[in-house]
Amino acid sequence: MIRPILIHPDPRLKKVCEPVAEITPELGKLAEDMLETMYDAPGVGLAAPQVGVTKRLIVMDCVKDPEAAPRPLVLFNPQIIWSSEDLSTYEEGCLSIPEQYAEVERPAEVRVRWTALDGSEQEEQFAGLWATCVQHEIDHLDGKLFIDYLGPLKRQMITRKMEKLKRERARS
Disulfide engineering: 131 pairs with which of 104, 112, 126, 138, CB 3.0-4.6 Å? Predict the structure, then answer.
């Protein structure tokens, strides 16, 4: 089921999410819905707070090549356990901040530990778009948006555009 994506500014996007204590069938269904929502948008990552659920859950799939097999990942309670000193700059966007993009500098590589859908502990090192995406989505779980990395003027400008977009959508 495709779920509606919250648009910034929304107070739920600024909340720190609670850890997932137990992976229930409901959370499995949420993860499935989130992947469907992300692919439909289309996007490469989605965090639970973006669909109004304040749980530490993200989904992502950064395979861009239409010929390659998709690689959907479901990460419960993801945490970065190592970051490279090397940084990379990537033009980021966000499904909660449609059609707005800005360059954000983050560690080029990160090692992440999480619990998978089947309850197993997973660990993987990500680089490139995958590293940017996982850091962006984990930020969502901590109530942080990519525009929080920008200067106050650029951030205010984007926020005003989103407020206008929300008003227009409410009218239609």
Answer: 126
